[in-house]
Write a structure and sequence with these properties.
- By secondary structure, the protein is mostly helical.
- The protein has a single domain, classed as Orthogonal Bundle (Tetracycline Repressor, domain 2), CATH 1.10.357.
- 71% of the residues lie in helices and 0% in strands.
Length: 312
Amino acid sequence: MSNSRPDPGIIADARPTNWVDAYAPEFLKPYCKLARYDRPIGTWLLLLPCWFGQALAHLSAGQQWPDLWYAALFTVGALAMRGAGCTWNDIVDRDFDGRVERTALRPIPSGQVSVKQAMVFAVAQALVGLLVLVQFNGFTIWLAISSLVLVAAYPFAKRFTYWPQVVLGLTFNWGVLVGWASVTGELSATALMFYAGAVTWTIGYDTIYAHQDKEDDALLGLRSTALRFGRTTPWWLTVFYGLTLALFATAAYLAGGGLATFTGIGLVAGHFIWQIATLDIDDAANCLVRFKSNRTVGLILVGGILADMVLS
């Protein structure tokens, strides 16, 4: 008898040669896809703010090298918490995902994983995140735990507002604050300034991402900045990316950033110009490439800060 379940296939956004579809055991593939291991860009965009905050704190303190153990902990934590957040998102959005071509092959709507199984998996990943978190100071632990309110709320935002990207920005960049606090045990204007810049950065890049789904979202009654901005998206990106650069530069100045940090910010400005100038909001593949390119933005920023630390 043939299996009646849908062919899991390769989910949209994943590379055709991604390691999950190529090498993961069959019984683990649905869970790897729930956690988005086949699409690592989100993990990068969650991890990089943690590294921003940590590196800025070290730079501000005049240290010449970051704590590599903390950087490794943030890597594991980002992998676990991005997986937990995406699993929760898929649980909440399961009915919508099944009606959208780009998301119909996700494990829950395609019947590969039950809601109960997905919930157990989400809790297991969150516990891994907790094991990572308890390695830090008490202030950092409670600061990170407080972000769970945003994590829980995010999947519902697109049902009520055209600005769910703001909620995503607040959520995804909480790591800036956590990274800073892990080093200093407190928050400061510098950390809050960089956090604000990271939020506006996320609003920009996730607006680009949301243009992939704007037709389906409109039919389903869901909302996004892509639908809100429409043809004026390039203008709005200019505003948000401009704010990002101004806030990053201010935070870098407050942290004692030097030539390397500001050179990195300058290179990021050029990258933002490329994104806006070459964006085609009606071409999903074009939008996806520009969205994914924001990993490069983050790596440039981290590299500039680290270079300043070493050179100092």
